[in-house]
Structures are given as structure tokens and as C-alpha cells.
Specification:
single chain, 135 residues, alpha+beta, 3-stranded antiparallel beta sheet, two-stranded antiparallel ribbon, 55% helix, flat
Length: 135
């Protein structure tokens, strides 16, 4: 198997695996049925850690009243899904990446816009001290 970077979101590249058949799949997805312990370890030490970091960041932004989130981990999953759904599913199901940098930037920007539309604190929300603030 060859490790390749098929997608980019805001400057960071995901690590993926090219299987013997040529299909690019997430490292854990490619062999999850054959090596379930490997898939679990990859998820725990990779993607789950990223989700945890995102959740902590989103919680911090919620505490600052910039986002309104009840479940930061669920919001982190939503964010990752919005960014990765198109390129990852096309890569998994077609066996190739057909995206250029502009496509990936467009997917990332659109995903971020949708996330903020769902989770941004309302534009003028009264703070606890009675003052209002525009975001």
C-alpha cells in the first residue's frame, strides 16, 4: 500500500492509503474488515483525536459566545463531515481523486459557511451583563 494525500482542507492534507486495487481509501477504512484492531487504533489515535481537538476549540468559542453549541463533539463531527463528504466519498467510490485545489478550497469554504450558519451565535445576543454584541 502507498500512502497518498488526496484532499486538502485549509492547508492541511489528510493521510490516505492507496490499496493494491488502486482505490484510495482512508487508512482505517481500507482494511477495517481484515484488521479491525488496526482500524480501531487508527481511528482512536488519528481521526478521534482531531475530533477532540475540534470539539475543545468549539467549546472554547461557545464559552466566548461566538458559537452556540450544546454538544461540541457532535458539532466537530458535523464540521468534519461538511468538509470531507464530497472528496472522500468520491475517492472511495470512484477509486480516484478528481479534485483540483480550487475544488477543495470551494468545498472547505462552503462547509465552513454551512457550519457557521448552523452554529454561529445570533448576530445580536444580549450578554449576561445586559450589553449586546454583534458577531
Amino acid at each position: 500500500m502507498k500512502v497518498v494525500p488526496p484532499c486538502r482542507t485549509q492547508g492541511s492534507r489528510g493521510t490516505w492509503v492507496r490499496t493494491k486495487t488502486g482505490a484510495r481509501k482512508g487508512g482505517g477504512i481500507a482494511n477495517a474488515d481484515v484488521f479491525p484492531d488496526l482500524g480501531s487504533k487508527w481511528y482512536e489515535q488519528g481521526f478521534k483525536r482531531v475530533l477532540g481537538t475540534l470539539a475543545a476549540t468549539f467549546q472554547h468559542l461557545t464559552d466566548q459566545e461566538l458559537l452556540r453549541i450544546d454538544d461540541a463533539l457532535l458539532a466537530a463531527n458535523h464540521f468534519a463531515g461538511l468538509l470531507l463528504w464530497i472528496p472522500v466519498n468520491q475517492a472511495m467510490f470512484t477509486g480516484s481523486t478528481q479534485h483540483n485545489e480550487a475544488d477543495l478550497d470551494r468545498y472547505a469554504a462552503a462547509g465552513a459557511r454551512v457550519f457557521l450558519a448552523a452554529y454561529r451565535w445570533p448576530p445580536s445576543h444580549p450578554k449576561r451583563d445586559g450589553a449586546s454584541r454583534a458577531v
